[in-house]
């Protein structure tokens, strides 16, 4: 026999024992470990959908027990049938996305597994089945044990830590605390003679996303502070501890913002730039249109803010497809022990997942993270802090929302702005009309994400139909401005100009140019 020779011609008892018994046994054990960890991990991802689902069912049952006694039986039956079809559609879309995710992952894995099989069968160089199963077991274990632990360990690096005393507590009301945020670079000193900026975080997403990874210069808020700008951020007090937050209305939000701006104007002898992110941008616009900030604010910045939620195709269409009977805040209302009613934050996050179920179903999320971890372990042998911080934020920063504030957002996503530019909400009994901003000659920069699937660009750019505003597009999605592009050396720096002929200004540059 010439050419290829089977290695077992070089026979020895030790080699025979290892090849025929020990190696297959090790592979079997690794398969068992991988399978166990796989189901453990998948169960965790399933709970992200099932836990809010059980909460929603509790609210649903409580509300329906009352409504069934009040509404005509035929109407109730018809609504239930519509809800059945609605649930069927979500299930179908979720299953479709899951099947695609499994097929994509399996296609790549089959190539690797078949190669390992051939290497084992013909004793070739390269990864054999035993090594393949061991690697799979290590990968799944990294995902179910190491990754969650790494997510929790990123907490000291993520977000604001005002308890450390590095930032100044400036002012306080029953509902909010305002801090002046300092640069992490000790060489940068705040120039108190400069124009101040007050940042209004979103209610749903929380403030920490705007202080993402300040130690790595990935922080929207610190991007202002790093330029020596007097940078202030309004932090909502814990809703479970503050009755004032629980019962807050749009008027309360406006009055507190006006109070803070008045104090800032006195301190700096300059009017304030109001800067709202996401839902904070919508409330900032409402505050200004109410007239309560006249003489206090002379510039406005909104980032990925749903000014007209009905133009946000994903969420608005989702709400429209929901049977009319159930498109009601009652089905997401949480009654606290003291009797106050708030909107359940976990349920709000669940709704966002449902609207994009093809991309956010448990299986899709599971395999997406598995591929990400596989790449991370292969290339760097450590997890990326950006991915860890994003997951920490998604896991820990959901909070309940004051019902008065939720009603404003709910109205925005269900009722469009009128042809005269009047918003579907009122403050202090006054209509909120865009022309007030034009009359006051208030500079307004609207920043939006080109691939934002939470607040699509038409929702953020709605004011353009009524008044002239400056706009700046950023690549990627909803939080990229606060994460990817907040780094000073990014391709789209917040303090710089970019685009063809430097056409666009980042929000920090816009504020600096107001000087």
Could you describe the 3D structure shown?
The protein is α/β, with parallel strands linked by helices and 515 residues long. Helix 1 (13-70) crosses helix 9 and helix 2 (73-121) packs across helix 3. It has helices spanning 13-70, 73-121, 129-153, 220-225, 243-246, 250-268, 279-289, 313-321, 345-355, 357-360, 362-379, 385-396, 403-414, 435-439, 457-460, 507-513; strands at residues 168-172, 176-181, 197-200, 231-236, 272-277, 297-303, 333-335, 341-343, 401-402, 422-427, 430-433, 444-449, 470-474, 497-498, 504-505. The chain is built from 16 helices and 15 strands. The strands form 4 sheets. The chain has an 8-stranded mixed beta sheet with strand order 1-2-4-3-5-6-12-13, with helices on both faces. It has 2 domains: 30-157 and 345-399, no CATH class; 159-308 and 420-513, Rossmann fold, CATH 3.40.50.1820. The chain is globular and about 80 Å long.
Précis, in short:
The chain has 515 residues and is of the alpha/beta class. It is built from 16 helices and 15 strands.
């Amino acid at each position: 026999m010439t050419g290829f020779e089977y290695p077992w011609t070089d026979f020895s008892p030790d080699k025979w024992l290892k090849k025929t018994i020990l190696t297959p046994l090790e592979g079997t054990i690794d398969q068992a470990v991988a399978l166990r960890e796989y189901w453990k991990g998948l169960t965790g991802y399933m709970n992200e959908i099932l836990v809010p689902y059980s909460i929603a069912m509790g609210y649903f049952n409580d509300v329906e027990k009352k409504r069934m006694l009040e509404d005509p039986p035929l109407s109730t039956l018809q609504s239930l049938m519509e809800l059945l079809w609605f649930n069927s559609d979500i299930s179908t879309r979720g299953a479709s996305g899951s099947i695609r995710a499994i097929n994509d992952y399996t296609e790549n894995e089959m190539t690797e597994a078949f190669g390992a099989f051939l290497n084992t069968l013909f004793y070739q160089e390269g990864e054999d089945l035993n090594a393949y199963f061991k690697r799979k077991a290590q990968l799944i274990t990294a995902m179910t044990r190491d990754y969650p632990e790494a997510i929790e360990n990123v907490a000291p690096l993520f977000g604001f830590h005002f308890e450390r005393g590095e930032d100044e507590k400036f002012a306080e009301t029953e509902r909010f605390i305002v801090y002046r945020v300092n640069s992490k670079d000790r060489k940068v000193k705040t120039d108190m003679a400069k124009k101040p900026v007050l940042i209004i975080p979103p209610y749903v997403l929380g403030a920490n996303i705007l202080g993402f990874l300040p130690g790595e210069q990935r922080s929207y808020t610190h991007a202002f502070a790093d330029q020596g700008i007097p940078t202030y951020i309004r932090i909502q007090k814990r809703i479970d501890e503050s009755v004032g937050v629980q019962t807050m209305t749009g008027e309360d939000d406006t009055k507190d913002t006006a109070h803070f701006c008045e104090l800032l104007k006195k301190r700096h002898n300059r009017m304030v730039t109001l800067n709202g992110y996401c839902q904070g941008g919508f409330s900032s616009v409402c505050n200004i249109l109410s007239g309560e900030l006249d003489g206090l604010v002379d510039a406005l910045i909104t980032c990925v803010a749903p000014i007209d939620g009905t133009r946000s195709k994903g969420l608005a269409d989702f709400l429209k497809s929901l049977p009319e009977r159930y498109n009601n805040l009652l089905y997401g209302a949480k009654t606290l022990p003291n009797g106050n009613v708030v909107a359940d934050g976990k349920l709000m996050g669940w709704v966002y997942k449902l609207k994009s179920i093809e991309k956010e179903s448990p299986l899709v999320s599971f395999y997406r993270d598995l591929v990400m971890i596989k790449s991370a372990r292969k290339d760097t042998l450590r997890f990326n802090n950006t991915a860890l911080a994003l997951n920490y934020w998604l896991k820990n920063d959901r909070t309940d929302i004051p019902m008065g504030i939720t009603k404003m957002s709910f109205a925005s996503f269900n009722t469009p702005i009128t042809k005269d530019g009047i918003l579907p909400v009122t403050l202090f009994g006054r209509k909120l009309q865009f022309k007030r901003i034009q009359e006051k000659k208030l500079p307004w920069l609207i920043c939006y994400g080109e691939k934002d699937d939470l607040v699509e660009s038409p929702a953020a750019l709605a004011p353009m139909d009524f008044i002239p505003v400056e706009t700046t597009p950023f690549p990627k999605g909803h939080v990229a401005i606060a994460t990817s592009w907040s780094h000073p050396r990014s391709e789209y720096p917040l303090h710089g100009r970019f685009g063809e002929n430097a056409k666009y200004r980042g929000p920090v540059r816009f504020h600096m140019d107001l000087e």
